[in-house]
Amino acid sequence: MTLVADELLRDSSVAEIRQARAAQGASAAATPDASAGPLLQVDGVSLEYRTAETIVRATHRVGFDVHEADRFVLLGPSGCGKSTLLKAVAGFIAPVEGKIRLSGRPIRGPGPDRIVVFQEFDQLPPWKTVLQNVAFPLTASRTLPRREALERAHHYVEKVGLAKFADSYPHQLSGGMKQRVAIARALAMQPSILLMDEPFAALDALTRRRMQEELLALWDEVRFTLLFVTHSIEEALIVGNRVAVLSPHPGRLRAEFNSHEFDLASTGGAPFQAAVRRLHERLFEHEQAGAGEATP
Fold first, then answer.
1. Per-residue pLDDT tens digits for 137-159
2. I need a surface site. Which of 51, 52, 200, 254 has the fewest CB within 10 A?
């Protein structure tokens, strides 16, 4: 695991991390080539929630780049703003400071080039079959006519292993199967970037591991670009080829790691466990420092 930026970024821009990454050069064959320039640029982004009484800052001047075919993970504790950042990339929330660009163009709202898979199982219309659910965004957005939309939907339903359940309804599916449908529906739109907000958090441990395995197998085949949010260190290392660590509220970019060397087969190994400990230290270093200062 390579540490790209090993210092807490406070009020500085993302320039330091970009310079550090450029100085490292190409990493491994499995890591997408950064020479083509970033697909997604998040540059000095601050996000806020406003209430009648106060303004809550969710993130403070966060910046990172995501390249084509990256599996980029936002890792942080609850309340650090990682899901808020994902929503901003999706176009649901506008930054109060900084810029978000996709393919060099500013993001000004939601669009079919960014599709979100949420944590909730109830994101599928219950009156539509699996096949109809996957085809629906294609027809609703007028991306494809109905016949071609159904053909593409069949293709992605097969890719997620649900061909036998194409005519089933959501209430007839398990939680993991519903998430497969949501992933198939997202990939069928062929977005520039797939956004996943803790999609496996509500699954049991065995199903979660299976879904991680299937997601990586799909990536090997399709090579889509992924922005993935999690609070699990192990999941971040397994799913991502790059991991950005966010500080507690308000979220700031604390460090960025290359993790392309790990997969599900790595979890029992000493290098993986050492990486878990290193990420844990970076996530909770301020709590540990505070506890040390309090000790007489």
1. 999 999 999 999 999 999 999 99
2. 52
Question: Which residues neighbour 42 within 8 Å (Cβ) at sequence distance 6 or greater?
Answer: 14, 62, 63, 64, 65, 66, 85, 89, 98, 100
- Higher pLDDT among residues 24 and 83, named by residue: 83
> Could you tell me whether strands 97-102 and 105-106 are parallel, antiparallel, or unpaired per DSSP bridges?
antiparallel
CATH of domain 7-113+194-294: 3.40.50.300
Distances from the Cα of 274 to the Cα of 173, 242, 277, angstroms: 38, 16, 5
- pTM of the prediction? 0.84
Closest CA to 194 of 285, 38, 66: 66
Token representation of residue 31: 């890591």
Would you say residue 79 has pLDDT above 50?
yes
217 vs 35, residue with greater confidence: 217
Every domain range in the chain assigned CATH 3.40.50.300: 7-113+194-294
